[in-house]
Specification:
About 40% of the residues are buried. The protein has eight helices and no strands. By secondary structure, it is an all-alpha fold. Bound molecules: iron/sulfur cluster.
């Protein structure tokens, strides 16, 4: 949310008042999810955290770009829909991997959802309410392995000694005799 709003204010020069109104709209969408489902990774996985944040940011962006009510709702719906099933599996129990990059990608997706929604007339098949209900059910169906316990997914498949991006390691690997 902050990244998207900060970026839009810096690049598009939206006034504080418009940013605050967009923030209020985002809050409405977040509250719908909090009331009807969950925004907790421990309850529904990352779809309820980063997915919902993406939906909120998408709604805010759509409003700033003059979206109609239907387009704003569509942008939020897409923001959440395309995170359905996203697990919470933070490596070492820390909110760093995959969390930091995941948030950055979701910020970018929120802007894409806004663009997509604003190219349409706002009509779509799946409502925001329906995707919230789906997210809730999907979260209930997820095993606890994928709900902030760091016992499954990336958390159980990561080797912190491995540094795939290290060029020296790559050279060493290439020179290995087989
Ligand atoms: S993966 Fe990270 S960002 Fe996503 S819900 Fe878990 S702790 Fe939060």
């Amino acid at each position: 949310m902050p990244a998207v709003l900060y970026h839009l204010q810096e690049t598009r020069k939206f006034t504080d008042k418009r940013i605050l109104r967009a923030l209020a709209t985002a809050g409405l969408f977040g509250n719908v999810v909090r009331t009807n489902a969950s925004i907790s990774g421990a309850e529904v996985g990352c779809q309820g955290e980063v997915g919902v944040a993406c939906a909120m940011a998408a709604a805010a962006a759509s409003q700033l770009f003059g979206g109609t009510l239907a387009q704003i709702e569509y942008a939020a719906e897409m923001g959440l829909e395309h995170h359905l099933g996203l697990t919470c599996d933070p490596v070492c129990g820390l909110v760093q991997i995959p969390c930091i990059e995941r948030n950055a990608f979701a910020a970018s997706r929120a802007l894409d959802a806004n663009t997509y929604a604003n190219f349409t007339d706002g009509r779509h098949r799946v409502s925001f309410d329906r995707v919230v209900a789906t997210m809730h059910q999907t979260g209930k169906d997820l095993p606890s392995l994928y709900k902030e316990t760091s016992t499954g997914g990336l958390a159980s498949n990561s080797d912190m000694d491995e540094q795939p991006g290290d060029p020296a390691l790559r050279t060493k690997d290439l020179n290995k005799e087989h």
